[in-house]
Amino acid sequence: MMTRPADHPEVSAQRVGVLLINLGTPDAPEARAVRRYLAEFLSDPRVVEIPAIAWKPILHGIILRTRPRKSAEAYNQVWTNEGSPLRVVAHRQAEALRERFPDVSVHYAMRYGNPGIAAALERMIEEGCARILAAPLYPQYCAATTATANDAVFAALAAMRVQPALRTLPAYYDDPLYIEALRTNLSRQIGALAFKPDKLLLSFHGMPRRTLELGDPYHCHCLKTARLLSEALGRDVDVAFQSRFGRAKWLEPATDATLAAYSRDGATSVAVAAPGFSADCLETLEELGIRGRETFLGAGGKHFALLDCLNDSPESIDMLERLIARELAGWVRPT
Fold this sequence. Notes:
Elements: E1 15-25, H1 31-42, H2 52-78, H3 85-100, E2 104-113, H4 117-126, E3 129-136, H5 143-158, E4 165-168, H6 176-191, E5 199-205, H7 209-213, H8 218-233, E6 238-242, H9 255-262, E7 269-273, H10 282-298, E8 303-306, H11 314-327
Helix pairs in contact: 1-2, 2-10, 6-8, 6-11, 9-10
């Protein structure tokens, strides 16, 4: 009978892990921290598809000299006592899912900023994770979000001698679990408003139109989500795209232009939802909740409401639990 040598390193029990991934956030609402964050974010070739030899002088010579201070002011308007809104929600989502999966190691990471993907994976492997589900929380697939999150996971594993088995969460833009979570959550929020909105605007993050022409399915995924949600709610919805950047032509219609035009068309009350964001962040709370409100009211609108993202709501956690359980089939026994 063979026995383990006395000097053999300790062998930990193998575990299953889930890594929730979101876009990222600076460490503080200060220009220096925002500059570090933007430098990492805007240096990603998945995000800015311009040859580096042309883009780097613009990024380092102009953008990182001017934009961090302005962005820091925006972050200051939405920063909480607990920190970045996105990081706070990500932490709560992970905590809630740990309760749903007590035998699974659940962590969260940011593609840009902290906690980083490589560090999170290293920690999970130290905990004994031999099987990991990487779960980018982007319902609609986009190369600039889903793909780059997976890239970072693959790059971290590429540096490891002993790699864990890996699965990735697919896009869930048309999954009945996602549509029902949105329907229930938004219906509850709209029902609690002090006014009945003439318009329900679904604002998705924008992308250069060139990405659609190159075959990125993001635009199609957004429109299908909107159609299915409209059917589930039993009401019409409008779709627009926010966060335009640079001079290139972006997906249209633009959210700010749509909000400005509503009152001219006789719509004086609007509710805005951002179903492409799994957690509230700068783009929802400041761009939509503050600047979007100002645009709508300044153009003659009367009533404006920004609806919360799914965040760590009961609908969100129930949906994520079932999506994740499906992807863990064969690794984790059903409870």
